[in-house]
Design brief:
By secondary structure, this protein is of the alpha+beta class. About 55% of the residues lie in helices and about 10% in strands. A hairpin with a 2-residue loop joins strand 3 and strand 4. The structure holds adenosine-5'-diphosphate and magnesium ion. Adenosine-5'-diphosphate binds next to strand 2 and strand 4.
């Protein structure tokens, strides 16, 4: 894990910190940060014992959470940077400490879905899981010449999402110092996406639909999915033989190859945003596989954000540089996106217009160019510094309204994930995506 940090020119903790203005806004966790001080998260400053002890307490209470509550607590603590990097990593691994499904339980799941055990369906089937999934585990199977990935969901996951998430609320409100309105907006969106993630039939339909349509994009590959071996708790697809992107990034990817991967990823995301209006909303290295032929393998359509038409036309105006030349249009778009509200005081209104103008200009900077160099450390440093500044604004802290609409939450996360991977790949991307070979 240590070398991972050293590979980043910008410390991991800073990357985590910035996500909090890219997601729900910037209120959460500031009181905490103020209370415990920057020291806690600044790797360069020696931490004193008191801070360690406080982090221990928080870690202990959060890690008592289970299932989807744990996942949301992880999301929030990452976004809000509540825990020092070492705890973040320990915490992130907590999901994998869920005891794996025993083979008899796997067989039982197969029998209730297909009336047959895995060994009656496949030629070979690993008794042990080969990978952990967030709500289940992945086994490897073969059938004829094909090698397959079989994702199996833990029993009871779907039923427990709502009750799990109810456990996070008091913690989020007290420990994370979230405002109830903001939290409720955030959690209703997260709950909706998580409930969808528990439905592997839905994931199957989306995987097939989105991957079929996205096949036109050069240099990307998707597994073939098998409805006949899938159910609400089992999802079967081709195994993509290659190196997980996270591993490949650690060992180093030659720049010409990284270039192809980065451009393919950019094109894939913009094809989904603009052509399909439904987006694979989980761009992190675990969901990409570097294929032996240099193509980008893409898996895991478990979390998909569908983009409503009205929101689409407001949100993507933010990428249009000419928005800032037309004050009236800008105000209209900012209102539609919940950056400002009709009942804001004139002072608040002026403040938020100025703040979001800066924020949009900064995050949308790549869209003002023909090509943009995501390797640029200075750009990312500016982004992170701005994020920290925003996080400490009292105007945001006392705002009674969430600043930003619910539909933006997963799109912002997606852009943040995409920018981060492109930065790690150190690529220059052609902004106007091209969807033809
Ligand atoms: N088709 C596949 N080919 C190769 N590896 C896979 C495949 N599907 C899943 N995996 C492995 O299993 C892990 C978990 O699967 P994933 O679908 O991403 O689950 P989750 O929805 O929980 O993130 C992946 O990160 C990857 O390492
Ligand atoms: Mg995944």
């Amino acid at each position: 894990m240590k070398e991972e940090e050293e590979n980043h020119s910008i410390p991991v903790s800073k990357v985590n910190r910035v996500t909090h203005f890219l997601t729900t806004g910037a209120r959460i966790g500031r009181n905490y940060l103020r209370h415990y001080g920057r020291k806690l998260v600044d790797p360069d400053t020696p931490r004193d014992l008191l801070h360690e002890a406080n982090a221990d307490d928080i870690y202990a209470s959060l890690s008592r959470l289970k299932g989807s509550a744990l996942k949301v607590a992880q999301m929030l603590s990452m976004d809000r940077n509540l825990l020092p990097a070492a705890y973040q990593r320990k915490f992130a691994m907590a999901q994998y400490s869920v005891p794996p499904l025993s083979y008899p339980l796997v067989v039982k799941t197969f029998r209730s879905s297909f009336g047959k055990g895995p060994e009656e369906i496949f030629d070979t089937f690993t008794h042990k899981a080969v990978n952990a999934a967030s709500m289940g585990q992945v086994h490897k199977a073969t059938l004829g010449k094909r090698t397959l990935a079989v994702k199996i969901q833990y029993p009871g996951v779907a039923d427990s999402v709502k009750s799990d998430l109810a456990m996070v609320r008091p913690i989020a409100l007290s420990m994370f110092h979230l405002s109830p309105t903001e939290y409720d907006q955030f959690i209703s969106e997260v709950e909706a996406r998580m409930l969808e993630e528990t439905d592997y039939q839905l994931e199957l339909r989306r995987s097939i639909a989105l991957s079929e349509k996205s096949k036109v994009i050069p240099h990307v590959v998707f597994p073939k999915y098998y409805p006949e071996y899938s159910s609400s708790r089992i999802l079967t697809m081709d195994w993509l033989e290659g190196e997980p992107l996270g591993e490949a990034l650690k060992s180093g990817i030659p720049s010409d190859q990284a270039q192809v991967l980065g451009q393919a990823m950019w094109n894939f995301y913009h094809f989904q945003m603009h052509q399909l209006r439904a987006v694979h909303a989980d761009p992190h290295p675990g969901n990409f596989i570097l294929m032996p032929d240099g193509k980008l393998g893409i898996i895991d359509f478990g979390c998909v954000k569908e983009i409503p038409d009205a929101f689409y036309s407001s949100y993507f105006q933010l990428h249009d540089p000419s928005l800032f030349d037309d004050e009236q249009r800008k105000i209209r778009v900012f209102s539609e996106l919940g950056f400002i509200y009709p009942d804001d005081s004139p002072k608040d209104r002026a403040f938020f217009i100025d703040l979001f103008t800066q924020l949009v200009a900064l995050l949308g900077r790549p869209f003002r160019f023909e090509s943009f160099d995501f390797a640029d450390d200075r750009y990312f440093a500016t982004l992170y510094d701005f994020g920290e500044k925003v996080a400490n604004l009292k105007e945001l802290r006392r705002s009674k309204r969430p600043r930003g609409v619910r539909d933006a939450i997963y799109l912002n996360r997606t852009y943040f994930g995409l920018y981060t991977i492109l930065h790690d790949l150190k690529v220059r991307v052609r902004i106007k995506p091209s969807y033809e070979a």
